[in-house]
Amino acid sequence: MGYDSFESRKALKAQVLADFVAEMTTSTTSEKNKWTIFVDGSSNSQGSGAGIILENGDGVLIEVSLGLSFPTTNNQAEYEAFLAGLRLAEDMGAEEIRIFTDSQLVASQVSGEYQTKEERLLEYLNLIRTKLAKFKETEVKHVPREHNARADVLSKLASTRRKKAGNQSLIQETLTKPSIEKTAEVMHICAVDEQSWMSPVYNFLKSNALPVDAKEAAKIRKRACSYVLLDDKLYRRGFSIPLLKCVEEARVEFILQEIHEGINGQHIGGRSLARKALRAGYYWPTMQNDARDHVLKCDKCQRHGDMHLAPANELKMLISPWPFAWWGMDILGPFPT
């Protein structure tokens, strides 16, 4: 009697297991966060421009025609288009992107195949790599110019017809300076002078600091209800205007002078000047008195203003029962001889 031979099962190969996991694992990124980007830049004697096309898996299509209002070379225009596509993808919340460009130089330098020797292009490359690191997955490919015709047309700021998509939009913008140009850092100092009228309210809203005197502390708490602190700046809640910027004493004279006799100044009266300062969005407690004093000190207002001939007080009639009922006499002398 014959018996079937038994052979033990061999161990699974590690590569087979890895292939199985890769095949059965689904991507966690939704289709709306996967974007395909076509970019192209152009520069000629008439000007420079960039064309960008973004499309995701849900069929959303965005076309951007970006004008460059500064002198560029053709390679710089290609890099500006590449950077503009990355900025748009970041604004749209993209997680996985595929970028296609017809510039062999840009595609090879971004992927690391070519070296970048020009200093200006190296700054562009470093900025691009910084932005690419913000995405989960990126892919940069070079395509022939005929496969990137639409982006090429947009870069030349021309209009073409295209089959309408469900969610299609065309945006035209202008870039005023190179993307690699660094902006000057400005330090904002928002500290309030301790002698200013704003100091008690500002300190209370900023750090909950109050005077030792209980009555003064209660007054400041009550006053603080009408104020709000935004970006370390004090504003007063208004009625017709939502927020009025609080002004220190040192800037009051400049504001009143600009409103009263600036480029749109009409040399208006004190009450109107105070109201116009309110409508301009400013506030300080002594607005009425300061505006009136400013008008009184204005030389042009005193020289060319209307002369008021009316008496200071209301005139009263003198009632006489008969002529010469009242007499008046002045005594003069003695005079020098």
Automatic annotation (TrEMBL):
InterPro entries: Integrase_H2C2, RNaseH-like_sf, RNaseH_domain, RNaseH_sf. It comes from the Eukaryota. One of its GO terms (molecular function) is RNA-DNA hybrid ribonuclease activity. Residues 31-160 form the RNase H type-1 domain. PROSITE patterns: RNASE_H_1. CDD domains: RNase_HI_like (cd09279). Transmembrane segments: none annotated. It holds the Pfam family RVT_3. This is RNase H type-1 domain-containing protein. It comes from Trifolium subterraneum.
